[in-house]
Specification:
The chain has 862 residues and is an alpha/beta fold. Helices cover 62% and strands 10% of the residues. The longest helix has 29 residues, at 86-114.
Amino acid sequence: MGDFLSELKRRNVVRIGLLYAVSGWVLLQVADVLVGLLGLPDWALRLVGMLLLLGFPLALIFAWVYELTPEGIKRERDVDRSASITSHTGQRLNIVIVVLLAMAVTLLALQRFSGRDANPSGPEQAVAPVAVDAPGVSVSDESPSIAVLPFINMSGDAENEYFSDGLSEELLNVLARVPDLRVAARTSSFHFKNKTGDVAEIGRELGVANVLEGSVRKSGETVRVTVQLIKVEDGFHLWSDTYDRKLDDIFAIQDDIASHVVGALTAALLGDDDAAAKRAGESLSVATAGTDNFAAYDRLLLARQYHNRGSFESLAIAREYYLEAIALDPGYRDAWIEYGRVVFSQWNTGSISPADAAREMKRAADEVAAIDAAAGVRRGDLVALQAETRIVERSGGEMSIDDWQNVAQEAIGRLEEARRLSPNDSSIYQSLAQAYHNAGQSEAALEVLNQARVIDPYSVRIAGRLSALYNFSLNRPDLALEEARRIQRIEPDNPDGFSREAAVHMRFGDLPAAYRARVKSIELDPDDHELRGWLSALYLGVGLVDEARVALEQAEAIGPGEPLTLMTRASYEFYVGNLDAALEIAERAIADRLPGRHDSEFTFNAIVIMEAYKNGEYDDALEAAQRISGSIDLDNPEFSNEYSAYVALQFVIPSLSAKGNEERVGKVLDAVTRCTTGTCSDPRLEWEKRHDDALVEYYRGNHAAAVARYADMVDMAPLQDYWWWMFERDPMRADILSDPGVAEAVERYRQRLAVARTEIERAMAEGSESAVAEPAVVARARAQLAQRLSVPAASIRLDELETVTWPDGSIGCPEPEMVYTQALVPGTRVVLSVAGAAYHYHAREGGEPFLCETPGKALPPG
């Protein structure tokens, strides 16, 4: 036996066996990646493994029978032992084995410490985590917390990305419903998608004790899911498994993974208590009872992909996919809940009316309530959806600040209940924070948002809400700007980060910086009409009237009849002196109970008030003022917020004074003073306080003190848009505006505006074309025409862009004699010209443009 072993060693059979095993393992790792990269079926990898296994004994036999000599390979028995070089060959084999072992160790280390497979669907991105100052959450063995990282798509097809993302998200949602388990929110977990790094470090950034990660390879009707649970503290695997199943078994895979995760963590999370474990198991059995219809599930995953993008267009697409999922399975609870949420998002962005949103959200909430009642459960997402539905129902038409506060106060109780039921749902925290904010409880809103950030540290929506809160309620421009730039770091292509930055600069007077940020936001989202409307307002604020008109017309082409578009048009007409046109728009918006967005209700009513006051119609002015501030009891007035007090000073008191009702003027002034000196909570900027003080002195008859404070206020006031043009044209205080002291301050303000205007004009001259960037429908039409005519797109001129309408159901090109004003479906007409010929494109709202050439029509050159 000893001689046999010695002979095996002499003939290098053992070395060959070891070399074969190590090289075979490395080859399998490479093959695993190539199978995904080339989109090969899963059996290809199994075939490689089987061939390698069959080749092992053949390699050993070959090493025993043959020997490598200087003359080549010979049979061992034909080699003279004295001339054998097997010892030299063995040394070389040792070197090769060491190199291969080093490669194997490197591969193991990469998998061990990164915990992530390379993504074969594209180049590996070695991206360092973005520093966002995540809260320092303590991570330990006892920490009941986990993050589900986005599973890697190993299918070799980018179109399957939604499936791997959806599986990760579904597991996250299941685990989020386990009692006593804190789960990092989807937004923050998915921040690390396609990024390599130490899983333990990622876990620490997310503030969790455990991380679940995996990969998905989808091929035809089969799917392979590989998953592993990693402890953050030491990086060790707590559990791992691989599932090869038919696609219609995906629900069983989800159940199995979730059960294993909870089982692996039971001792740490639940104290190995039988009752606690049973509670977790019951939670899972309820949580995974979604649908057994794979097609419906697939539609849900697609819908989520678009929902998470959050743009005007993507929300509409998501809504349609949710409806398809519901049509395939009318009892699909998750599809109904998320349908209600996407409609709420559309209402928030102004792309759906309150009436339509409320109807669809109530429909979704009623369906979910019936499903939950049959299952005997009560969950936070339904309670939140019902509260949000109530908010939308109450939001139709103009609402005063008091109305908003009452609605918000009503919603707070239900949203608090929703948070208790679903403590891992960061969207509930955000809705609750917004309710506290609308109720005038800014500090409570801040506390809730900070709690939400613990769950979801990389959420740009939370950062956006914090930026708005710091900007408009807490008067902390430094923190507001920090949150806006946090969005820009996390999602550089998200227009909201730059829009929030512009809002901060606008409120605190840096108009050139606001311009640059606003332009960048339009670059990133050219189809958002509100961004262009805000840009028009900025232009108007610095006196760039022509530029304001161009931006306004672009906004109108994209979003005709929208609240902000109409507000911007009314402001523009008022600014340039077309008072009848401005008044007509404002009165129509009020009569139609147009939904209030971005203070549009204030602007419409302010125009009505100023025109009514100028014409001596003081009762009409007072009625419009009451619409903004809420119905003030003029005999026993009291204010709960400084906004209402400001409206009373600005509009209610001058209307009462003009009517000669000095007793009521005195009572309202006293109530305003009580509010501004302590009973109202939200802080005001110093210049705003000086403005209120000046008006109080003015209406108390202290003219000299009023003039001094007014002049100080103008010098302190930051450069802004709407405030300034209303201030200059205010008919209610014409005498104080004409006072020499105030007039001098006004002139100094104009000089500051001129400096800002020059800097903005310089920025425009430096080549930023984003301010007049084409909407996507124009770009698509230009590309179509360029391809059709085989000409450069740059040679095609835009002659006309306007909003038109045509009868519902019509196809092809509208007839020239069609009366557009009587039509039903809004759209856009684009007129392009090249080489003297005109080409008309028409696009249904949200649809692709189609060509309507006008034969024989020639346009003048130039």
